[in-house]
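Re-run requested by the PI after the first attempt was lost when the workstation crashed. Everything re-entered from the original request form. Ligand of interest: oxa(dethia)-CoA.
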Amino acid sequence: MTVRAVPVGIGHYLPERVVPNSEFEKTIDTSDEWIRGRTGIENRHFAREDERTSDLGARAARAALDDAGLNPDDIDAIVLATSTPDLTFPSTATMVQAAIGMTRGFAYDVQAVCAGFIFATATANALIVSGQARRVLVIGAETFSRILDWADRTTCVLFGDGAGALVLEAQEGTGTTADRGVLSVDLHSDGRFRDILYVDGGVSSTGSAGYLRMLGREVFRHAVEKLAQTSETALEKAGLSSQDVDWIVPHQANLRIIKSTAAKMGVPMDRVIVTVQDHGNTSAASIPLALSVGKERGLLKPGDLLVSEAIGGGLAWGAVVIRW
Ligand code: UT7
């Protein structure tokens, strides 16, 4: 018998405040034209001062549970991806666990920055396949607005806040590519590139939260090279190819990266779910947000073959193949 981690619920939450590119024109030397042209971003959402990452994550988690028709205590584990936790500890996952009223099971965070949701999904899949959990709530939740340097035009226009959540459930499969669920995973990291995308503060270094720093052009170069590669490797591991893909649901950092990856894979843009224009880069939240919005738009249908890919600080990158 093959156990598969099958998606049974998806949901998201975006903070109310929508910030258009024109807002930045008031404070820094930038333009709507530059931001739109270079990144595809038009708007992003920013959390209220009193809204924490766990608040966003809990809202998304409740939406995903509602979508699945499940209660919090039907869940065995929460795996939450974030680089912007409420506190240094305890984990934001345990904050969400308490907020949604889940009184059993276990909850912890994983941190792989913008690739966080891929790593969290891989972890949840491993928990399910190894029999340690039957239902796992996988969450990506971020408040990147808290680590942006508002004077740095090369980074502050790029990111947004939000959260998305996916419920994965153990179901019996046949062991073929026709099964619903996570079919394969491909993960990588290379710490030699840690200095091209990082936060310049931390508990054991500066004792402060710090600000995001990025050599955008360098990260862009790696993204364009690595994202198609990891997606194709993940597909190969599943015994599939990009010809079989119904949807690419990519990390939403830059429309130019999304287009270039799809082109390399030979997948037309009408089979790519794009939300970067509305959300900006929400780091670990971007893929579950795109999955949830994709479902809301009526695009994702049960049985569709998806590949999701992401790259971020570390560098850490990877892809996951899921039959929806
Ligand atoms: O999610 C984690 C992974 N992150 C990413 O995937 C991000 C990857 N990188 C990117 O998306 C792009 O590199 C950026 C959007 C960050 C930048 O686009 P680019 O086409 O690589 O631009 P660039 O960094 O080469 O900068 C081009 C010019 C520079 O001016 P000079 O040196 O040519 O005079 C920048 O100073 O654009 C300038 N610039 C801006 N101009 C107006 C940089 N930021 C801005 C801005 N407004 N906000």
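Saved to the shared folder this time. The chain has nine helices and 13 strands.
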